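Recall that a protein's primary structure is simply its ordered list of amino acids. Everything else, from secondary elements to tertiary packing, is in principle encoded there. The following example makes that idea concrete.
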Amino acid sequence: MTPEEIRVRRPVWSLLSELWLDVELDDRQRELLALELSASAFSVAELRDIHDCEVAPVVSRNLDSVAGEWSGFDPDWLAERCAKAADDRGALASRIRRWGGSSRRRKLVTEVLDDVLARVARLRG
């Protein structure tokens, strides 16, 4: 990834990583997250792809931890790993990792992501 691509994606990575924190997002938090994501240059489909291919492979294990992160991921750590995940998208190991993890937790995050992205679409009109 170029430095410009990283600069543009970095806030989106941070916002999407909130779905993987060890907290439940209430309606107000989901709406705020959607509002912030709707200000990005990415389409709803691109936001889903960034989540699935760049963010989820990096942070999905957080919900499998007994003492998972709840306050937020270090932004530099997150950007470094998400950029690497973006660069490694086509690699077999990356595709396998993407589908790993707890299916129940992944399903819950997917449901919240679906809700947030529907709100993004609504906000964009």
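Helices lie at 3-17, 27-38, 44-59, 75-87, 92-98, 103-124. Residues 64 and 102 are 7 Å apart (CA to CA).
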